[in-house]
Amino acid sequence: MKTQSTLTQLELARQGVVSDKMKQAAATEGMDPELLRQRIAEGTAIICHNNKHTNGIPLAVGKGLRTKVNANIGTSKDDTSIDKELEKARVAVAAGADAIMDLSTGGPIDEIRAAIISETTACIGSVPLYQAAVDTVTRKGKAMVDMTADEIFEGIIKHLDDGVDFITVHCGVTRATVERMDNEGRIMEVVSRGGSFTVEWMTHNNAENPLFEQFDRLLEIVKPYDATLSLGDGFRPGCLADASDRAQIQELILLGELTQRAWKAGIQVMIEGPGHVPLNQIEMNIQLQKRLCHGAPFYVLGPLVTDIAPGYDHITCAIGGTLAAAAGADFLCYVTASEHLALPTVEDVHEGVIACRIAAHAGDIVKGVPGAMEKDIAMAKCRKELDWEGQFAIAMDPEKARRIRAESGVDEEHGACTMCGEFCAYKVMNERKTGGLGTGD
């Protein structure tokens, strides 16, 4: 018989056990631990936490929970600074990110990942295939397409051993799905890095994707860590014209089938989603994912609702993310102003997290997440009383709000802002109650 320490959170939940991780995550969410257990048991919620992430705090994601926000960071060949990525990690968490994905492809990748994991208690994700590909080229002197299946799985084990809480694996990128994409005539084809690596590998080797073909092997590797499989969307649309096509939907169908296989093995799963999607298709995409993937938590990149806003894609992401969260998305991956242009700066990371948090919170109000609307009511009351310190305390970005107020030159503790001054509607209505209407006092 398995002991509690050897069972996964999904297995424990199915046995009616409320684990310490469930209790901790439920307390953070303000949720009844038993309700969280029930949702984990049915697969509509997850506890994202690798057993080896000793300084990490279990993160609950899914049905009835606050919409979570992820920040992508990581080096590239052109910028390999560990210090810069650590600063981005600190800034992202300070701005309210619930999770960080390290997507490093340049420099000492192992050291960078270890430093990021030790730097914060936040949930950590990664895409092990990136490093497997880089190591194949830089350390082994081979072409990326000459990676072996064993080397791909070894890369996964390395990340899990380091304590990564969730790994993105592109198991739905198959030869059949590639054929659908080719027949579809996509403009952007594959924009997912992991997806493109996999398609190139399959084409060169005339072979099936090992992560799909050897999915049971993947499950066996993941289980001892109790990490979460984030089933990646290798065929996510990279432009509006490619949204909701046959390749994207075929992959989603496969991910739904793989979800059931993972659940049977006791492995927790979330599904990754698009991408660039027109506003009027977002709700349909969320509903379709929930239907095909049996209610598993949905983790979306954006969605971005237009292709023509480089430099402002944190805004296009927030617009789409708001509608996605309201429609039932559980986890939003931020996009920064540098998307499509460059590696994000520290300030880009800060602004991207705040924009994504705004989208997540707006969606939570629609979903009726406990405590969401109360924050807005509290802000309204502080504004009514011209309570600036109270407003700053509730604000998404207190420092920016405080700076803008200070730069206005107004130093009154309960004075109006410089837009309306003495004609401030709040002041007028407050004076009406005290009998001072029209006096200017």
Task: Write a brief structural summary.
With 441 residues, the chain is an alpha/beta fold.
Structural write-up:
This protein has 441 residues and is α/β, with parallel strands linked by helices. The protein contains 19 helices and ten strands. The strands form two sheets. An eight-stranded parallel beta barrel has the order 3-4-5-6-7-8-9-10, surrounded by seven helices. Strand 7, helix 12 and strand 8 form a beta-alpha-beta unit. Helix 4 packs parallel to helix 15, helix 13 packs across helix 14 and helix 14 runs parallel beside helix 15. The longest helix has 22 residues. The mean pLDDT is 95.
Secondary-structure class: alpha/beta
Biggest sheet strand line-up: 3-4-5-6-7-8-9-10
CA distance, first residue to last residue = 77 Å
Summarize model confidence as the mean pLDDT.
Answer: 95
Helix content: 40-55%
Globally, the shape reads globular
Give me the count of strands: 10
Taking all Cα atoms into account, the compactness measure Rg is 23 Å
Stretches where pLDDT falls below 50 for ≥5 residues?
Answer: none
- The number of distinct helices, counting runs of at least 4 residues, comes to 19
Order of helices and strands: HHHEEEHEHEHHEHHHHEHEHEHEHHHHH
Biggest beta-sheet profile = 8 strands, parallel, barrel
Indicate the topology.
Layout: H1 9-14, H2 20-29, H3 33-42, E1 45-48, E2 59-62, E3 68-73, H4 82-94, E4 99-102, H5 109-119, E5 123-126, H6 128-138, H7 149-162, E6 166-169, H8 175-184, H9 193-205, H10 210-213, H11 215-222, E7 228-231, H12 246-264, E8 269-273, H13 279-292, E9 298-301, H14 313-327, E10 331-333, H15 346-367, H16 372-384, H17 388-394, H18 398-407, H19 425-434
Parallel strand pairs: 3-4, 3-10, 4-5, 5-6, 6-7, 7-8, 8-9, 9-10
Antiparallel strand pairs: 1-2
Helix pairs in contact: 4-5, 4-15, 6-7, 8-12, 13-14, 14-15, 16-17, 17-18
